[in-house]
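Got a spare moment? Tell me how you read both lines of this record:
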Amino acid sequence: MPTKAVQQFMLGTVLGNETQARQTLAAMKAAGYDGIELCGFMIHPIGFMVRLLTKAAGMPVGKGGNLDWHALVKEAGLQVVSLHTDLGSLERDAKAVADEAKSFGTKYVVITGMYRFDYGDEATMHDLAARLNKAGAALKAEGVELLYHNHNCELRHVNAEKRAYDILLEETDPQF
């Protein structure tokens, strides 16, 4: 049976403090959800500039980084189905990312698109595919799998025949 889960990012405005987070997670469970996809920048304290830029981009910014997500998720009876992170964090320390994912009981780490890549540039997409393969191999060595969460930006054309997404599908190794 499939696991019904919600991305933490979608709940950003109702996770601003411990009481809100508890109530929101309980409401998710009561509504029939089994899990949550945690977002790295929402479960760790973030700096002022990141917070400011995130808010300026119209994305939810709460104070969830100051909460004990291990305890909150457990208390709500939810499972963590994946941990979203950025490629830079994974490249800096894949073991730490893998260890954190495992601490939440998940074997999936998700890289989210739309972050610092020029999806209209063919060379950038070839480089991104290579970086994803390397990151995926590093996670696999730690017993964790890498997933990629695409958005509309990957559908940009990089040349007359191909879109960014085509390159990512063709050049990323499914084993990673």
About this structure: The chain has a mean pLDDT of 90. The longest helix spans residues 122-141. Residues 87-176 form one domain. Residues 135 and 158 are 23 Å apart (CA to CA).
